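fyi for ur records
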Amino acid sequence: MDNKDAEFDAIIMFEQIRKVSEATYLQNPLDADNLIRWAGALLELAQFHNEDPKQFVQEAITKLEEALLIDPKKHAAIWGLGNAHTTLAFLTPEETEAKHNFDLAAHFFQIAVDEQPENETYQKSLEMTAKAPLLRADIYRQQHLGGDGPPLASRPKVVKSSELKYDVMGWVILAIGVVACVGYAKASAPISAPR
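which gave:
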């Protein structure tokens, strides 16, 4: 299977998750775990939509905020907001707005760590958000390399910024997917009677 087939399969899978989540929402709008899954699917789909990926991220943020209205201590939703704002920052060309989103991401990651301090994923996300603005700056600097400097043949080859952006977004969104799956598995686990 080549990258195009894998990408197509991922789009189909996350679109299916989005549709199922939407249908579940119509039946039970107070299911916070469903809203988190829906947001995770939207964040995944954002990396495949070149027209306006920010729209998908904004919609994911709305779903995560709705989940927090239902359950304000839902650390997976808080952590998901951190990831969504990180993704939004990477998609934002304007530096001040990107910094604002990174600050929001750090805020949400800190709350998630405070809610569940033993969670290594949350701790790592908080650590990585401090490094994210430099990575974003490098991406945009590489994207805008141009007229000044040595001829193209003598410039070092760099990964296309769009590929790097999608790699970073992919890792962020993979982490969201893992947390959503774990949350779903915990929510779906049968409850045993006390003995």
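The radius of gyration is 18 Å. thats all i got for now
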